[in-house]
Automatic annotation (TrEMBL):
Keyword Transferase (UniProt): yes
MF (Gene Ontology): kinase activity
UniProt feature, compositional bias: Pro residues: 309-329
Region (Disordered) location: 280-329, 365-402
Pfam families documented for this protein: Pkinase
Source superkingdom: Bacteria
Protein name (Swiss-Prot/TrEMBL): non-specific serine/threonine protein kinase
Species of provenance: Streptomyces caeni
Listed Polar residues bias regions: 391-401
């Protein structure tokens, strides 16, 4: 437990005096503290769920949170490595309380802080990557997968030594009671495709995350990050990773690791040699590695060994979907999304945190057809018609959902399939629509669904709760007829040339910021130029954010 000292500061376990807050998130707060016994500075992790009454109304979720924290401490204690944060002490008050973890204090900030100043030179990135890889290998050697390798979880000592931290969602072979079949946990941006899909993962999944972190470090942007969590997850599964252009001698390393098939990635030992060659200047920039997707029109004719950054062999897109652009830049984030994906039993703890299994429409049936070769529904049914009326596959392929008729058709299909009419999120792309549909009787709980012209409505294995003041909304009184004009105004005023990505987002009403419902249109191109405009639900423009503005 913690108590208040004579000077008003909190003291944990009668020994650790909290001095300053270093950071906080959905799981609690990390403090800088002084160890009064050894007279040294330490970092203390205080775990607190967003809802202080969690233990009272959901004791199982509170118990799971406590066990997860204890698991993190035990995971760290099993790894003795200079590039893994050292755990000094854990204070556990027992059932009904949350533990405190006392760790070494790393004063140089995180890699995310460093990258916020700009891209990193390839040789520097390779040196950091080599040391983080050493930390991962030490963890893998004792049966631990980190599962959340990202810049924010790499702390930097003042001398430049990186330290891997936050093993809170590490997978340990003997901790299967805290994992769920088909569930994956981690940060969407850096999660390997096999983890997103719920397929078996292993050490190779941590290597993907490491390579994606290095890609982001040298390129200055994340190649698969999109405007929403769902869109990012879909991109990890289905979109091509653009070839790096600033990676220099690191290019070939990234190319070989960022392939969708885990078996095709180099193992940790090989990756270590490759990074060492780059870090020590023994590898020259190369452009000889072929970066080409499979032949056009062959969604299932993918080589058994992936080549470069082509579409995923294990997760080909459905044949009725419009192919994703070759290079999709990073759009501006319309609103803050939940970053972690945790176990289903922790849903009540973490608000907007999700549980992900294979994105609907992202897999194939036994024939590889992506859902069968029967006649398919169209997204442009006549007004008052059945949105699931059959039409030819070719017609379905050419449907643009980013139109008034397309949007209304998707909404009607969602309502007919689910019997629900309140939305917590609604995102329209030219070829599909994703939505959070609220559970009946609840204003916070939602299930996720996807609508595609060729397959209709499919339920995703994603559940969550709205948080941060977001409110559900009915879409009946939105003026979708204004969408073409909004798109035209966006094209005219957002200063984005050669647009290759466009979509529309619901702006949820928010009780905390007292903001009304509305919508936003985003445009971007292959050169990472992007902009967006916002409008109220009647289609009146309220904000324009052009590229460079």
């Amino acid at each position: 437990m913690s108590e208040v000292g004579s000077d008003g500061r909190r003291v944990v376990d009668g020994r650790f005096e909290l001095q300053a807050r270093l950071g906080s998130g959905g799981m609690g707060t990390v403090w800088r503290a002084r160890d009064l016994v050894l007279d040294r500075i330490v970092a203390v992790k205080e775990v607190r769920p967003p809802d202080r009454d969690l233990a009272e109304y959901d004791p199982d979720a509170a118990r799971m949170l406590r066990e997860r924290v204890l698991r993190e401490a035990r995971a760290l204690a099993r790894i003795n490595h200079p590039n893994v944060v050292t755990i000094h002490h854990i204070f556990d008050g027992g059932e009904g309380s949350y533990p405190w973890i006392v760790m070494e204090y790393v004063s140089g900030g995180s890699l995310a802080d460093l990258l916020a100043r700009g891209p990193m030179a390839p040789l520097q990135a390779a040196r950091i990557g080599l040391e983080v890889l050493a930390a991962l290998r030490a963890a893998h050697d004792v049966g631990i997968q980190h599962r959340d390798v990202k810049p924010a979880n790499v702390l930097m000592h003042p001398d430049g030594r990186p330290v891997l931290t936050d093993f809170g969602i590490a997978a340990i072979r003997d901790a299967t009671a805290l994992t769920a079949t088909g569930s994956v946990i981690g940060t969407p941006d850096y999660m390997a495709p096999e983890r997103v899909s719920g397929r078996a993962d292993g050490p190779a999944s941590d290597l993907w995350s490491l390579a994606m972190m290095l890609y982001t470090a040298v390129e200055g942007h994340h190649p698969l990050r999109r405007g929403t969590t769902l869109a990012t997850l879909a991109a990890v599964l289905n979109d091509e990773v653009p070839p790096p252009v600033k990676a220099g001698p690191l290019r070939d390393v990234l190319t070989r690791v960022l392939v969708r098939d885990p078996a095709a990635r180099p193992d940790a030992e090989t990756l270590g040699r490759m990074l060492a060659d780059v870090a020590e200047g023994r590898q020259e920039p190369t452009t000889s590695y072929q970066l080409q997707p499979p032949p056009a029109g062959s969604a299932t004719a993918v080589p058994s060994t992936p080549v470069g950054f082509g579409p995923p062999p294990a997760f080909p897109p459905p044949q009725d979907a419009v192919p994703a652009p070759t290079k999709v830049p990073v759009p501006p984030v319309h609103r803050r999304r939940r970053a972690a994906i945790l176990l289903p039993v922790a849903m009540a703890v973490l608000g907007g945190i999700l549980v992900w299994a294979l994105l609907p429409g992202g897999g194939t049936d036994a024939s590889g057809s992506g859902g069968g070769a029967t006649s398919r529904p169209t997204a442009s049914a006549p007004a008052g018609g059945d949105p699931t009326a059959h039409e030819s596959p070719q017609t379905a392929k050419t449907t643009d959902l980013l139109t008034p008729d397309g949007i209304r058709t998707a909404i009607k299909a969602f309502k007919k399939e689910t019997g629900r009419d309140r939305f917590g999120d609604f995102t329209v792309y030219p070829d599909y629509v994703s939505a959070y549909l609220m559970v009946k009787g609840s204003s916070t709980k939602y299930d996720t669904y996807t609508y595609r012209p060729g397959t209709g409505v499919e339920k995703g294995i994603i559940r969550g709760t709205l948080s941060g003041g977001d409110q559900p909304v009915s879409l009946d009184d939105f003026n979708w007829d204004r969408v073409p004009a909004l798109l035209a105004e966006a094209k005219k005023n957002l200063k984005v040339d050669h647009v290759n990505s466009r979509y529309l987002l619901l702006r949820q009403p928010n009780s905390v910021f007292d903001s009304p419902a509305g919508m936003a249109v985003y445009l971007s191109n292959a050169y990472s130029e992007s902009g967006y405009l916002e409008a109220d639900k009647h289609g009146k423009v309220t904000r324009v954010m052009p590229f460079g503005g």
